[in-house]
Amino acid sequence: MDLVVALHSHLPYVLNHGRWPHGSDWICEAAVDTYLPLLEMLGAVEVEGAATPITLGITPILASQLASPTFARELRSFFAQRLTACDAAIADFEASGETKLTPIAEFWRGRLARLERLFDRLDGDMIAAFRSHAEHGRIELISSAATHGFLPLLATDESIRFQLAAGLAEHRRLFGARAAGCWAPECAYRPRGPWAPHPAAPASPLRRGIEEHLGDAGYRYFFTDSHLAQAGKTLGLYREPDFPDGALLPSDDALDLPVARSPYRAYLVAPRARGTGVSTLVRDPISSRRVWSRYQGYPGDGGYLEFHKIRFPGGLKFWKVTGSDADLGDKLRYDPNAARAIARRHGRDYARLMNEIVRHEAAEGSLIAVPFDTELFGHWWFEGVDFLGDFYRELGRTGGPTPTTASAHLDRRPPTAAATLAEGSWGANGDFSKWLNPLTEWTWERLWPAEARFWTACRQSIDRAPDHRILAQAGRELLLAQSSDWQFIISSETAGDYATKRFNEHLDNLDRLTGALETGERDPALETALSTFETTNAVFPEIIPALRTALALTGPIDS
To answer: What pLDDT band is residue 233 in, cutting at 50, 70 and 90?
Structure first.
């Protein structure tokens, strides 16, 4: 039985949009907490001779930022700020008598210095490092829609094709190869059929299914949540505990899933019009919950680093989870060595769980697929990257399922069974409600008409070379406005003002540029505005070919 661990890496475009708390510091934190430690772990485990065939998705908008010289400068400033914070914290602790916290500050200083040296050895180019791991067969790199647009809710097929075409072009530009797999943003899927998600939406009696668009793009496979394949209940992005606190797993009898279809195999997605040849790998609800849930899984262990309690100024963390019912004021001092030992234990336990699934399900299935957000490991769950390394080491020692990449599994065991997927996502409630709800419907009421207006202007301008500079930037602003992150953040009510501002800025820019295409405006004010947009939102250089693909009715993307 094969094991496919898939990590989905994504952040919205934040460069050139401030630093703290939701500008470049956001991506710098992810780099220091997750991306650099992941590269460090891949290198260490490879030297030890163990295999880590992770299927790693890096969204085009994230890859574009990681490859930017602006990001490299911002990360170096971030390292300097955090190292200064370590020194300041040590001085403060010595002055105040809180010397029990000094070793933790020294731990942070050592870790940050080590990761900064790694970044220097990579010459500031993490993209090249991930590409090298892929070229040596240690990981498989997959792609996604350009800016993680919520594909089922986009009003036009042109917008869906544009998201996929621009994403594929950026992936090939940065990684030197086309991607076989696609992470459908938010694991969101809509089958072929009528489309009327909201009274303000431009209803259509028939639209193509998401798998058809993926097939036209040339993708071979995508991931889906178990409930969409009738292979388990949705876990959602966040879920309250449904069994006692401290229990890390349901009992073994929960492995007998009362569902219509096994999650332990890949399926051909049954087309409703014509064959696409696209397969889907189904998220395993049992092993996913062990890692995903802060209540039912490993990240909630009391010995791990507490994410929410932060020392200001400086942004360092000195406390552990302690307990699910512990207030922030009651959090106890963090012990890095004790936490590291817990991660080793959990890595061994996760390998044991995988062996249990093989014992129960090998007769009926050939695959355990466990997809996660990459940022869960290291950023949200600080010890998570260490856990992954320990898990792969344990599998190498004890056997069990065979770790492999998604493409390698499909090569060895091409799916023969077909599945018709239900509409939904891996978000809260398993549907689209995290992105389309009373808090966010205004975003769609503004976006849908802007889409239609842009594509009309695009058809009129695509063959006029003098319009291409304006058209290209208008396309970038449309993609950036379509990011699913804005609705998610607004719905979560955590940084709604920031998401609202960013969404409106991109649509305001789009409106200005679309108007210029419509009217032929070419004055100094437009030139100034266009230059500002190009500098601030400098992404996706190969935008005009992607627009041409989006306007085509059929045909492979990036052929």
So the answer is: low
